[in-house]
Amino acid sequence: MNLLVWTLVVPLITAAMGSAGGPRRLKEATIVGVALMILAVILGRPVANSSFGSWFLLSRQQITIALAVYGFGLGFLARMIRVRV
Asked: What is the pLDDT of residues 39-63, one digit of tens each?
């Protein structure tokens, strides 16, 4: 479940970073995104077994809402990037 949360959060972070300006920022955002995903995979089980691992347990309805918010956020960022260019 932790990995699912990170796969929703990391692209939004890196998209925001990448849209901030130029190819250099895009490369930095890619590096940060890959590093965060690797970190999420490595730390997934320890976080899930920790005392706050229950924070990442989502019901079917919560996952549906998270995916809808993610899709809206990604669409919004894509629109903002097109408007700026």
From this structure: 878 888 888 888 888 887 888 998 8
Q: Are 10 and 37 in contact (CB under 8 A)?
A: yes
Domain boundaries of the chain, sorted by first residue: 2-84
Q: How many CA atoms lie within 13 A of 73 on its CB side?
A: 15
pLDDT of 1 higher than 70: no
Amino acid at 56: F
Please give the torsion angle defined by the CA atoms of residues 50, 36, 2 and 76, in that order, rounded to the nearest 10 degrees. Answer: 140
pTM of the model: 0.51
**DSSP letter assigned to residue 55:** G
